[in-house]
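MODEL INPUT / OUTPUT PAIR
PAIR INDEX: 1
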Amino acid sequence: MITPTKGISPQRALLTVSAQISMILTEPMTVSQAWTSLKTWRVRHSNDAVLPYSWFVLALDVLYALGTIHYEDGLLYRKRVG
């Protein structure tokens, strides 16, 4: 589920989806904006694997658990290293 397996393609693995979210989160945005931006990014990059909203939320959970994003005042922020 988190990594690709026999039943989970690399395009749907939570680490892959999490990395894609991290790439599109270049500025603070709402969860809805992030969802729309991710779907647009995936279409532009020929990533045609079905991605349900619940999977998107699980990927956000992974990023939060890893300490790479935070949520404040209705906005998602990507934490900066440095």
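PAIR INDEX: 2
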Amino acid sequence: MYKRILLAIDGSEHSKRATDEAAKLAGLCGASIEIVYVADYSKAMSDVLHTQSKEDLDLARREKLLPFEEKMESFGVSFRVKILHGEPGPAIVEYANSSDVDLVVIGSRGLNTLQEMVLGSVSHKVVKRVDCPVLIVK
């Protein structure tokens, strides 16, 4: 079945639900999980302006990821964390397509039709462009 699962997170409640599903799947299959967090360029600028140093920024990101890591540990799932930089949709797609992952799990933000048409959603961009199956968790 699945050996490597890519879990794309952004720290939201949707990411937490996606984490639960990915951990359950990994537990059932004996798969490992690659947690991917994308430091979005548009948000990174404001992060840099509001922190003292690069170390503070790295620490803030690690603290944001801690609940997700703890969830994996509670499920007894093998995992590793990768922080990417760039626009979330394309960064996740590029990473997934260049890695040997069997499944991508991502949360859905639940945009309405107009918002999705105007903004586009990360999960929609990932589904359209990634080369493996994708599980979108609501």
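PAIR 2 NOTE: Residues 54-75 form the longest helix (22 residues).
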